[in-house]
Amino acid sequence: MQAERRIIVIQRGIHVVRQHLAKLPPSSTLTIEERRAQYDRAERVFPTPSDVKIQRVTTPARPAEWLEPPGVSGDTGVVLYLHGGGYVIGS
């Protein structure tokens, strides 16, 4: 039953996000500065949960972050996430 409630909450959240996104102009019509501002606003709406540990590191090429959610240890595996956007926004 608890899982079903979570699914309903998630589905409602997805619906709200889709409604909001439908009101935005297509990304292809925005300047890089406008896209960055849009990304920054979205980041404030969906912050990293406070119980997630964030460790900032620097590789030889660029800065990076290790994110560790609660209840997960470093020896259980790693997900490497390389975002899109051509490293133009959200970098």
Describe the protein in words.
With 91 residues, this protein is of the alpha+beta class. It has one domain (2-76). 40% of the residues lie in helices and 13% in strands.
The secondary structure category is alpha+beta
Largest sheet: 2 strands, antiparallel
How many domains? 1
In what order do the strands lie side by side in the largest sheet?
1-2
Structural shape = flat
First and last CA, distance: 39 Å
Could you list the spans in which at least 5 consecutive residues all have pLDDT below 50?
A: none
The overall pLDDT, averaged over residues, is 83
Radius of gyration from the alpha-carbon trace, in angstroms: 17 Å
Number of helices: 2
State the total count of DSSP E strands: 2
Question: What keywords describe this structure?
Answer:
91 residues; alpha+beta; two-stranded antiparallel ribbon; 40% helix
Secondary-structure blueprint of this entry?
Blueprint: H1 2-23, H2 32-45, E1 53-58, E2 63-68
Antiparallel strand pairs: 1-2
Short description:
The protein starts with a helix and ends in a 23-residue tail after the last strand. It is an alpha+beta fold.
